[in-house]
Write a structure and sequence with these properties.
6 copies of one chain form a homohexamer. With 237 residues, the first copy, chain A, is α/β, with parallel strands linked by helices. Chain A is 36% helix and 9% strand. Chains A and B meet through helix 1 and helix 3 of A and helix 1 and helix 3 of B. Chains A, B, C, D, E, F: Pfam families: Creatininase.
Chain lengths: 237, 237, 237, 237, 237, 237
């Protein structure tokens, strides 16, 4: 249930019998030949598909994240960490004030991981009710990562692992081969300018594509793992 | 051209011959019987339709805005003003660093208006290139407001003026009559709790709906006015 | 009753029987041939005259506001919006903690308008008592604006509408004609440097002066409208 | 030369031949039987009198300072330190951008002293021109303090030392005796609630008044010392 | 070379021929029977031993980190993430301004990991010189983790892996058995109050101690890995 | 009792019968020929020696303070005031939440004095229990300053007064004469670049050294005065 496909009365009715909600967070940043919205599109879609049979509402994806190392590729946006943690704080505060007690932040972008620090701080602020917040990076959660690794261990930014029918864009022909793998020690420490020089097309390594059948297997694993989180990923209370 | 329907190379190519971009900003908040995403959906859609024939890229809508007076209606989100201005600053900084020189912030929510103060400050920060930023609240820009007023002067939050085929939600029957008009002096000064008591269904007044033909006339005016802004709304330099 | 003409015991005595207070906010910025303090002087004076017969205390004017577009004219000061909202928050917090429950922020400067966003947020923060805060830009409130418009529709920054005996300065001869009108679409989007080039003397348009009789009529309307606000501008509770 | 008695052209003309300016900072807080504006009124007045023969412009006093320990006395305002340093930063930035190179912050309130830390930081930020900023608490500068000590060593908050013709308020009869002296170790560590209990009338100790002749001697010392600062208080460059 | 065992002239001399520096960061937080300073002591010590033969200076450890989940155990301190990132920014800025170009942040506490987000942002801020900053959590770097895993896979907070001669405290007898292992999904999502209830002695699981011989092997691996980082962990330029 | 020589259970046991704690704060900054850690080392050491017989716990020193005027001397660190006050706020909040009710901040660096403003604000924030916080700059507290003045009135930064066996560093020969005294009016207003030019070795004036016997007398006075503070420096409640 997308929040944008609901009115407030429907959300109010839902809160009479459940207290879970999903906040997908993504990024607007270069993904090589793929959509600049890849991380946002996938985080929202995996959330919606996972939550649908459970009837759990899914907020619109926060489309902007932290990607300071990609800002030399036009169209890439990046929030400062000081900004991002305040956005997250505000959204969590709103949800908590309305009666949501189990919040799943489904993340589609590695650079957003530090916000987990804010979440750990947030759950410890004094408030009337205990509110659980789990931070779940869907694309490298254990079962999804395992499903992908069975196909190919090389699955870096902009590679086949992000290449779904719904992240491709019109007018872009995707190469058939592989991009050279940029070592993580380099990728983690490069500036935006260095990154653009190191990766002329924005792909950090690995094959550019796989068959739709393979991709569906990975996707199904991702959806299933988010759904399992929504069903069983909470502390007993 | 939605940025999410593009990859970075396409944006880079665009920047070779143009320097305009649209950033739609909305809100996730109660709109009576209509979608909680009304302000976001309309801001993004009016931007995309206006920009399409011009080839100007449109960023994904920032779906969260400032609506502290609606947070008692479940599903409504609100960023603090201190947060919101930093989000805007970061996005403008990214765009400026990539060569965009004329940025249209197309706004769909009245509560976001104070960010215009940040924009006036931002354009005055020292930077290498002059970057123009116009803040345009599409729904009450002169020509759009005039088109709407010809039908009905009463057009408050949640009323017919926001009731488009693309802001209605499944499972919600919209009343045929009118909601009593909440005086602006009350609406502007009420707290979230008072607001919910004053407006049990969230509509602040006026008829709930008009014919699709009428709505199309208003919509066309809105699209045309945003397009005119993109074409002629810039200072000569 | 100016707070600066009172000691704390007198304010404490007042709070035994009333809970209203006025906080005037202005700006220190160029006003063409007129005083750099025009907006501050007028906001404080209109507040004091309006409040006097009611016995409502008036704080000293906050003399610095948001005017980033005027900082190229020496003597103009500007606070960042991030600073200004914290100043306002602190002052409101102090007043609320002391028992004031109806606070009128009487504003004399257009650039300060975004602080209304903070006020709407502030009244929604949880606190023990409901505190009302109205934001009133005295110079363009309906009745005052109407009184002025009857004389002349052109009444821009630095024009006759701000030219009172108490905003003129020694040693400055004021022209008798009119300044060319700078279109709002230009004034709203110009940088400080552009503004100074566009308006060599700082007046944004219209006649430089009118007779003292005319000015008194406008002034009386402003005082009356602030007084009416203090008497009737509050929500019933 | 008060900035509020000038227009921008006069300040621009001044900057052709001088680069000094005075920013008085005060506080709005209880001073026993005296005006709630005592610290602000004195800081501004001592600045104006000192600067007058030199032709140095004096900004309007910043009327709000840091006085968290007095907020239980109605009418007392207090900015948080995080707010206050940003206000100071903004004002200094504006002055520096306009060509002022020697800025005297003339302070009338002990609680504002921590802003000196911001000033030391500010002068070290990289900028094109060296800008000097001196922070001068006029009331306890060496010569003024010595002039006062010759009369009476006990000169605490709200006592005779702040009792000038221009800090008394109508309707308040000032006692003739002395208030008991609150030890500094207590005054410095008391909360606002404790402070109000410890000092029922707000005076922290010493005689309530002295003759106008004595007061004039102290005042003259204060004015002379600020003037000396404006003339000789700068580093050679 | 500890910075605290040096004067500034010695650091200045060092900068004539090298540009590396180590900033150890730790935490003051409960470690079961072990010192509240465990993470800080180890981060500083491993840095000093690793840097010693290279002559690279080591700053004093930042003893306070982010540990909101442990604050119910007395003596545990926690900085908010918004604070911590500003501390890191300031320290990096100082180092960069003095000519350090390769900065190793050697971290001893898992909760500090989000600061890596600030570091990625910081290296992308415009500055005159490229400054590399590597963030290295010494205790779970690949080779150190492998050395530890050879002994025992269970090595949670407060267990044998942190139990060195230099983290034990006088007067505390350490149990010989094992603490029950708290699942990571629980530990990552528990509040401070829940954490204290879940782990009565503060150990999150595994054996409390191993022989000094075993510990030395782990320690040597940690020192060697930090030294390798200082020698080879930089991007070529 | 150093907190780093304790585990949390020992601190918990202490809190059963006492509620005092010491937080030493220092600086990492040039001290001429002496250790860059002089202010931190002395603040921590004087705290530990003073607290030892009382059994009061002493936190690890906060080694970084505010010293923007020394950053041109390599190895000197400086936090911005906006950062420093948040660090202090966080530490005080943690201590208060754990039951500490009397906190002594023992300061070793003049530039940190503005944090006293935060402390006065902090004690006035609403909280369940009254928490006292005293800010004590040990090196210029009355009795210690008097002990030092008996030897020599000239005792500026980097001079004999900071030259203890435990602040000297290996490999640095300390001159036998005196450094010229930099006037306070200069030292307080110089930028970091000017400071380095004015004081080539970093000493701001006075003899470089005195006998260990003399130094012990000063030291003993400092320890005694901190101990007296811990014993008697609190308001009765």
């Amino acid at each position: 249930m997308r929040v944008f496909d609901s009115n407030w009365m429907q959300i109010a009715a839902y809160l009479q019998h459940d207290d879970r909600v999903v906040l997908p967070v993504g990024s607007t940043e270069q993904h090589g030949y793929l959509s600049l919205g890849t991380d946002a599109l996938l985080a929202e879609r995996v959330s919606v598909e996972a939550a649908e049979p459970l009837g759990v509402p899914v907020l619109p994806v926060l489309p902007f994240g932290m990607a300071p190392y990609f800002t030399e590729y036009p169209g890439s946006m990046s929030l400062r960490i000081s900004t991002y943690i305040e956005v997250m704080r505000d959204l969590l505060d709103c949800l908590a004030s309305q009666g949501f007690r189990r919040i799943a932040v489904v993340n589609g972008h590695g650079g957003n991981a530090p916000v987990a620090g804010l979440i750990r701080e947030w759950i410890n602020r004094p408030r009337e009710h205990r509110v659980q917040v789990v931070f779940h990076s869907w694309y490298n959660a254990p079962k999804t990562a395992e499903a992908a690794a069975r196909f190919d261990e090389d699955q870096y930014h902009g590679s086949w692992l992000e290449n779904f029918a719904w992240t491709r864009v019109a007018g872009a022909e995707i190469p058939t081969g592989s991009a050279p793998v940029l070592p993580r020690s380099v990728a983690n420490n490069a500036t935006a300018q260095e990154m653009r020089a190191l990766s002329p097309d924005g792909s950090l390594g690995g094959a550019y594509q796989r068959s739709d059948e393979d991709m569906q297997i990975v996707w199904d694993a991702g959806v299933a793992e988010v759904r399992e989180l929504l069903e069983k990923g909470w502390l007993d209370q």
